[in-house]
Amino acid sequence: MTTPTTPRRSNSTSSINNKGPIFVTGADGEKGSAIVRSLLEMQLQHSHLNGFPVYAGLPDASTTEARELEVLGATLIELDPIVKPEAVVDALRGMTKLCLVVDPHGQQITRVNAAPYARAYIDAAKQAGVEHVIFLSPFSPCDPTTPPGTPTLDARRRPSFPLSPNTFRMQFSIIESHLQLIFSTEQITTIRYPGIVHQHLLKFFANYIATHSALPLPNHPHMTIESSDLGDIVRATCFVAFSPTSRHGGKEYKVTGPQLMTLEELGHRVSAGLRRDIRVDMVEMPSLREILLEVVPNEESVAYTLEMWGLQWRLNGRRFEVTRDLEALTGQSGKTLVEYFEDNRNAFSVPIQSVN
């Protein structure tokens, strides 16, 4: 493990050859860890991607998961930006790119500290001379019925509804605003993944589906949602991280599935993927919270999950359209929900006590 006070290479050559160290925050969480792993694996597979040392920021470098990242080739940086934000500057000194991952599904991030956590990294990145910040967000403004192509950050659409200060959506909005205040537009790339991440269905509902042959969902069958796959989120992030800043700076991308679906249609896709009849149990919000708390013993994680879902609705009988930025970025389209369940049928076919 490298301590935050260790000086590293200068940024002087990175602006010339577009290569340099990449720092990933939240590497103890699902997304951050997956991004670190993918960055390292891609360099092993493609020699032309050498020259991007990977640093993993996490609160505890002694865990089994952290050591696995170290074995793969990551340099572990033990940090707590909330308690000691001053240490982050030294940790980011010499970094070329920062993958800013704020993941409330871990134990550290809450509705109170998400914005301060991210601000500590943003301020430190500016002071340390980081050239490019890649920000991952599970939220996006509501799209018009016919959205334009990938917008620049200056042309970003803002939500027309008031935001509660006690929500994760508001925390992420504050983070975005602060990022734009501190860094120039050309230094920021935003990757959005709104809606249901397919892996959440496995993480939160595998036991329920296996036991009841049903998928519990909010009691709004016609609510329209987006969906995405963790692998697609990671792939898009790594693609941007390995690319010259000038190629993606000042842009935002939305990584979503091929189409929107209602909650009722979500149940049909679960049945199709598992190749057996899965009904949809429409439950009220208190019941859904209780179901989630059985496998996620953390109220903040439950609140975050429910906020991510159900952000888009039918509008006058028409559906919102979805951008397909993953295909524009990588030349490959996202995984469909049916494909995800076909690949993971066994996880939903037998009763299990818990899912980590």
UniProtKB/TrEMBL annotation:
Compositionally biased spans, kind Low complexity:
1-15
Q: Which UniProt keywords apply?
A: NADP
GO CC terms of this entry: nucleus
Q: Where is this region: Disordered?
A: 1-23
Gene3D superfamilies to which the protein is assigned, alphabetical: NAD(P)-binding Rossmann-like Domain
**NmrA-like domain spans which residues?**
19-296
- The answer to whether the entry has keyword NADP is yes
Tell me its family: Belongs to the NmrA-type oxidoreductase family.
What is the protein name stated in its UniProt record?
NmrA-like domain-containing protein
